[in-house]
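__Record contents__

***
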Amino acid sequence: MYLRHTIRKKDGKVHRYWRLVRSVRIGRRVIQRTVAHLGELDERGRVEARALARRLVGAPDQTQLFQDGSEDLTAPVRLKGVRVERSRQFGDVYLALALWRGVGLEELCGRLLPAGKERIAWAKMAAVLVTARLCEPSSELHIAEDWYRRTALCDLLQLGDEEVNKDRLYRALDHLHAHKAALEAHLSQRCGELFAVENEVLLYDVTSTYFEGLAEANPQAQRGYSRDHRPDCKQVCVALVVTFDGFPLGYDVFAGNTHDSRTLQTIVTAMEARHGALGRVWITDRGMASAENLTWLRQSGRRYIIGAPKSELKRFAFALAASNGWRTVQEGVEVKLARHPETGETVILCRSADRRAKERAMHDKFSRRIEAALERLAARIASSKKQLDPANINRQIGRILQQNQRAAARFAIALKPDDCPAGFRLAIACNASFDDWAALSEGAYLLRSNIEDWSDRQLWKAYIQLTQAEAAFRIQKDQLNVRPIWHQHEDRVQAHILVCFLAFVLWKSLEMWQSRAGLGNSPRTILDELARIQSHDVVLPIATHGHIRLRCVTQPDAAQAALLDRLGVVLPKRMRLAEHETPRLAAIA
């Protein structure tokens, strides 16, 4: 285990960032793999992390060795027969369950899902579902038959292996989904208390997630524009609202063929009913920028920043071409404020050097593709020994342009009569106006807002935070496996998405916690590293007869100890056994 540092200069200051690395052998090579980013190892961050840990986790529950009054009894142990049994993953589920309790979900589910005639409380089953989704996303069948039996969650929840099965997990999904609104309202309040999350500025975006199977029993499962590039599958659209820092506040599910713009008014109304409307600023991308939505937002007095379609840039070509009025808000990014001629809105013209290079490269790539395809087509026409059908050639030209739409408008293509056997030749000309407009508009984009009291820098920076919503979707899809959906019925699909949402709340809580501790922003690294901490049963045979069983937690290694120290977490050394496993010296001495 090693400490490595990187020196960076920022704002005239020198920063030394530390990371913990481990040597790992891959084939014949030994590489250093980063275990955790420790930041600048400042004491202030460590103190803040420990204070947050006390609010989230509290003091560790250190189980006493014997709890039946037999502490003063002695028994000879046969050292030769000491053995270790029942090894389970401990560290990741302990941290996940601590987050579940720390954000108040255990207490809330206990109230929302009160114990009835059932033998197992539904609140515990909900904890199993969300913890599994965070630590090792999988199906309910896999949780019941494999994952749960490999972890120490049964000891932490005092819920035996045989008491968790797929049918009970499915029923827990049904019970949990009925309380979606109450869960969202609680999390908004609780996480505001823990992390000082402010929800005056709300970021809103929509994604889709697809089904495996026909999903005929689900009316929301429809085919539409697939962000997952699976147009062959039915899907649903998930609309998510997050805070300025990326903390999730709420979501809704729409039919898979719903256009983004048709979701905005529903989501805004629902979120304001839950969190209040005073002072809210809504930020969303150009998919929501329909004329109806913008009119509705303005007339209802709501404040917004919305990306506009690139086609609207042509209305501001003069302002875009003018060299005056531009202000640098970030290295490589310039903005200029203007007025919308019809609505009087504030228009934020933006241009980015990185985006310009990307769009120029895309135009060049597609132009080269079109030119190469047209050259091959022209050569085939010229070498033809018989007359060709112009309609067939026009269809081929259409396919070439359709496959390279980014640069299709750059070319003017016509079939000119000719004396050759084919009867015509291919005439290709470049549209100069396309090149002129591309040179002006590459890297430029347009925002619309009715906020009058923010500067151009504030407006641009607020809109750029929309990447937090995009990151939330990326985490839910890649890390929490919200896709594909295997459930076929609408209620189960809704419950599956709710469990993924709750797991993302725990993910984001851990991310904000580790960020304050100077450990970067990769919860998966933390969970994977702590998953190597295990619990074991140490069995001590008594010299006379019987044995003592102790459920102990392994000592963290140097890397794990560094992580736990930075997070301010103290693991218990022992865990309580189930009632039928509790050691009683009086009975065996």
